[in-house]
Amino acid sequence: MVDMTQQQHSSRLIIVSNRLPVVIERSDDGMSTRPGSGGLVTALAPVLRDRGGIWIGWSGLPDADRDAVDQVLKESSVFAGYELRAVSLTARELEEYYHGFANEILWPLFHDLQSHCHFDPSYWAAYRGVNRKFAEHIHAAAAPDDFIWIHDYHLLTAATELREMGVRNRLGFFLHIPFPPPDIFIKLPWRFQILSAMLAFDLIGFQTMRDKRNFVQCVRMLLSETRVHSQGGFHILNSAGREVRAGAFPISIDFAEFEQRARNREVAESAWYIHEALPDRQIVLGIDRLDYTKGIPYRLEAFRSALSRHPEMHEKITLVQVVVPSRVDIPKYNDLKIEIERLVGDINGEFTRSGWVPIHYIFRHLTRGELLGYYRTAEIALITPIKDGMNLVAKEYIACNLEANGVLILSEFAGAVAQLHRDALLVNPYDIEGMSDALHTAFTMTHEERRRRMLRLRATVRRYDIYRWVEGFLDAAVSRHLYDFPVISEYIPPADSPDPGVSI
Ligand code: GDG
């Protein structure tokens, strides 16, 4: 593998994402910034500093004063060690490109929820316009040798805009969310435009083989003049004299950092207090942003089913369900919140006994310390999205499970399943009784079995961490070799088992 840090830095790295990796705050004294959280920025920052680099993204403030934003970013750039450049968006652009096209069309469609889509034609024009705006900023910033790495579903058409502007740089793209199968993708009124725009990149990274396969099948079906073959783990697509490579690069976390922080005293104390308040019971942890892709209502029904079918679990198990507020001003999201709260109320009303409330429901953002405390102390993590690009919560739980006594129950439709399927308990997130069985299996699993599985899960996530992911993508962009990822064979539910979730 090419060590990017040892390359001579003639080629800078330009990262482009919808949001910048800093949060800009307004106050009476003007503007200030604080670092955003997340493994992506932690992993990319050293590479950006070393090679020289620029991060381009929206400032996070609609209709903001450009000069003031540029000034505050200039100061933060010195601190970050690489340059931060803002793309400014109007409130209207934000409404139509971000809330509209990205989050009312691409987000639900790419998570197989076409009935949630709102195919408003004005959103498409805004999406193209904002992608062009991003492209203009990239064009202005890039030198001919720079490698440009664009992230996620907000910017699918940026490369074609760049090519129209005459930009010849190598362009990489990584999709953080799933790519849907052809039957679903063809519902998109702008399916040809989106797909052909993607072919303006040189390297397209997906989270899993499943997503890469879906993309290739869509290209085969809709862009029949494109020739496709596979080579060295990539799919190579040839169209209009250009070659595009598609590969699977499962994203990960900074394992060492999570492990180390989970070990510190504040987290150990927080973990101790959580269990002290819930003595003699196993804690089942669910943590999700308020979103209909997370499968929260089915999960609550599964917990209800487990309590109904297995009375021996009463008073011995507590579900801590954290829901992080998100988009509550949108009616669909508020409806979901009401549904979750109704279910929690119903289940608690039915099963609560003196000294035991089966579901502890938290509707707020946890501090990092609280989050790690829950990760460290929960005996079971219940992660059941109906579809998810990867799901970093699963990997973070594993990294923080220092005692190696936790059980991971994981949806078959989370991208993380491709790497973790051997040692997690897999469930179909629509199968309430299957999930209820998996909860019982986890609850009764022996200490030895838990340990055996968790140690292997930890070894996998430790080995394939976020640094390896960054290195692998950049390596593939430069050297044309496939990233060595033996553990991401596509997960297919076993045909001979009627209930893969609990077959061990
Ligand atoms: C996309 C894809 C893909 C959550 N609650 C709290 C909190 N979190 C942090 C977790 C984790 C992150 O948020 C959520 O990570 P996910 O992987 O679930 O998803 P996203 O970043 O939203 O979205 C996803 C990912 O991109 C990466 O490619 O895995 O599939 O949808 O890091 O720790 N953090 C704190 N308090 C909380 O209450 N502090």
Question: How does the SSE layout of this entry go?
Answer:
Layout: E1 13-19, E2 22-27, E3 30-35, H1 39-51, E4 53-58, H2 66-80, E5 83-87, H3 91-110, H4 121-141, E6 147-151, H5 158-164, E7 171-174, H6 182-185, H7 191-198, E8 203-206, H8 209-222, E9 227-231, E10 234-239, E11 242-248, H9 255-263, H10 265-277, E12 282-289, H11 296-309, E13 317-324, H12 331-351, E14 359-363, H13 368-377, E15 380-383, H14 392-400, E16 407-411, H15 417-420, E17 425-427, H16 432-444, H17 447-463, H18 466-479
Parallel strand pairs: 1-4, 1-6, 4-5, 6-7, 7-8, 8-11, 12-13, 12-15, 13-14, 15-16, 16-17
Antiparallel strand pairs: 2-3, 9-10, 10-11
Helix pairs in contact: 3-4, 4-5, 9-14, 10-13, 11-12, 11-16
Bound molecules: GDP-alpha-D-glucose.
Please describe what this structure looks like.
The protein is globular and about 70 Å long. It is built from 18 helices and 17 strands. Mean pLDDT is 92; it is low at 1-8. The two termini are 36 Å apart. Helix 3 packs across helix 4 and helix 11 crosses helix 16. It folds into 2 domains: 10-85 and 135-248, Glycogen Phosphorylase B (Rossmann fold), CATH 3.40.50; 255-464, Glycogen Phosphorylase B (Rossmann fold), CATH 3.40.50.2000. The strands form 3 sheets. Strands 5-4-1-6-7-8-11-10-9 form a 9-stranded mixed sheet, with helices on both faces. A 6-stranded parallel sheet has the order 14-13-12-15-16-17, sandwiched between helices. Strands 2-3 form a two-stranded antiparallel ribbon. 45% of the residues lie in helices and 19% in strands. With 504 residues, the chain is of the alpha/beta class. It binds GDP-alpha-D-glucose.
